Write the structure tokens for this entry.
Amino acid sequence: MVDATVAPVVDSYEADDTALAAGAIANGETQNRSIHAVGNVDWATFTVGADGATDVRVETNGPSGDTEMWLYGPGDSTTLVEYDDDDGTGNFSLIARSSLAPGDYYIRIQDYGNNSLIAAYTLQVSWTVPLLPVAAPNFAPGPGTYPFASPPAVIITTATPLAAIYYTTDGSEPTSSSTLYTERSA
Ligand SMILES: [Ca+2]
Ligand SMILES: [Ca+2]
Ligand SMILES: [Ca+2]
């Protein structure tokens, strides 16, 4: 019997076999990796900003292979957040968290059992930055009847510093795709 297995290519994030050597992965990024040698361990790190993170997903995927994965943090590579073996597709791993506090997090990935190779797999990290509550906007002048021929200019203000104000003029609920109010006075 001929063994046609080709040795996996060393991924571009090596050498990253320790937490100190972890490279960064950004929100929404997908990295193409491999476990090219028995005992190869892959570390990556990401930073959750001051507003925190919600709907966090850290996952591996690939055509074949069996990863196990640890997530540590915030702020160090030893405080375990969660371990996962097979919650992803097939034998790949998925750690899903409803929220994470601000700080640096560390991901450790290896072949399950740390005794075989994975020719190719992807590591993906994604989360949502939660929207902060803002004060309700004030309108001046307020609701009323105004002459069609000479409508007053409406000034919109909010007590929340730096908050963006979006508006509609057809009575529908504004979204961040609506018109941005730009007539701000100090
Ligand atoms: Ca690797
Ligand atoms: Ca590695
Ligand atoms: Ca697994």
About this structure: Residues 9 and 36 are 6 Å apart (CA to CA). The mean pLDDT is 93. The first strand starts at residue 23 and ends at 24. DSSP finds no helices and 13 strands in the chain.
